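Case 260 in the screening queue. Each case pairs one protein sequence with one candidate compound; here the compound is zinc ion. For every case the pipeline is the same: read the inputs, emit a complex structure as tokens, and attach any notable structural observations.

Predict complex for case 260.
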Amino acid sequence: MLHATIIQKNVTALLSNKIKRFTLQLSLFQQKPGVAKPSASRFGEKIRSVLGPRLPVNALGEIVEQISANPISLKIVRQRTSKSGDFRAPHRDTPARITVNGNLNPYAFLITLVHELAHHHVNLDHTRTMLKFSFRRKTKPLPHGQEWKTKFQLLMSPYLNSGVFPNDILPVLMLYLQNPKASSSADHQLSRVLKKYDPADATMRLEELPFDAVFTLHGRRIFRKKEKLRTRFRCICMHTNRIYLVNAGAPVELIPEGAG
Ligand SMILES: [Zn+2]
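Case 260 output:
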């Protein structure tokens, strides 16, 4: 059984690498008093290294400026089916935070990031107004109300050119921005044209496969899925007939029956 233990360890290691890749966190500023803020250039470098591979090349310089001007904690997370990004206003000791799904294509990633930055800017404006006048002077803006729409349009304006977006996205995006909705995926035209740039990916989670399905894990061994034991599935290696316990969330590729 030593062999099985080693494989199990490898599986766990590979899974934790996968998770790490999706939870890159940019701690752009420290909220604690007395802790020095990173210098502006280091700050920009950090944004560049994390966002660089995820954005259209010609959008990077502008994004670095937009984020540096109003720093925020930014987290790139695993895919969520319910949303592609979110914004959380600062609360007590917790700074304002944006999360964006790491699996988005560069164009969808940019639109989502700027959508969330617009929430951040509306929130900053609101807080400043409250401090300047009185707490009763201004009611809280609606999440996707006029203030947000105007900010989103303004923040998107530097990117609305063919150097950033391909020619099939650009006109659809400009039309969408005339009256943007809460979610870009709610806009049929826009989500359809953005989808064209999604990488083809056959990866599924083990739990999504039917009982007895044949699959590969990281393109190596071939297994057959058996019953669930708490958080893992019993899987039989097709070459050795050995049994392994594989995490329900493991990224796998289904092999059509007969092909394995
Ligand atoms: Zn929103």
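Case 260 observations:
- Residues 19-195 form one domain.
- Residues 34 and 127 are 23 Å apart (CA to CA).
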